[in-house]
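We emphasize that the prediction below concerns an isolated chain of 288 residues; any contacts that depend on oligomerization or on bound cofactors are therefore not represented. The input was used exactly as deposited, without trimming of termini.
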Amino acid sequence: MSGNATSATVLGLGAMGSALAGALLTAGRPVTVWNRSADKTKPLVGRGATAAGSAAEAVAASELVIVCLLDDASVREVLKTVSLAGRTVVNLTNGTPRQARELAEWVTEQGAKFLDGGIMAIPPMIGQPGAFVFYSGPKDVFDTHRAAFDTFGGSNYVGEDPGLAALHDLALLSGMYGQFIGVLQAYALIRSEGLSAVEFAPLLGGWLTAMSNFVQEAAVEADSGDYTRNVVSNLGMQAAAFENLPIAAADQGVSSELLAPLHQLLLRRAADGHGAENLTSVIELLKK
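Result of the prediction step, given as a token string:
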């Protein structure tokens, strides 16, 4: 098999792909890079990378092939143009569990090994404390290349099922965007009276920190399916109190459309006779 066992190829040099390639270079690894727009290879070539003239040439250069492109369709389009036999393909393109499983099956059929990954960082964080990446697929493949993965940040292996990295990634992003929704709504209300969001921010940050115990408490309830223990502010009470949020928003000239989905779920769950339970029981309405 051709290719250097300590080297790596990176396909895709957007902000994230460039950051991944840069981290490998910083760690002293030989890196081959490819991008549709060849100009994006220049900064990395200046740091010691080798620019390939085609994706096929790039894949031939290394056993370890890291893919970071726009989406699943882009990944498939590029990989179909190359020979993958004997390679290890690590897909760090954002996608879904189903896409990861289907891609894993196809890559394996081409004679290659496959891992999927979910990057929990923005490009400037790569290689810095706080960055971490989920990986899923064969454990032995993960173990073989862990040293390379550790250059990106913490390496979290989550299981043999190739879809599990994307599942963990999207679950964390769901929590993040849920928080963003609340923060944006809060600032819209504050600004509706001309008040400073900057001055309000410490109050909001402190309040969210105080409420962070909900993460662990809700996890216990979600796993057990028991929403009736240690109820303090029951769902029925919260459904009634929630009514003030859209009313106040309307009075202030602020849309409540960010909050509307949760409001409707609370009302439905209460109407179904679960008002005495904890708010976590709304999760039952999310199951299909």
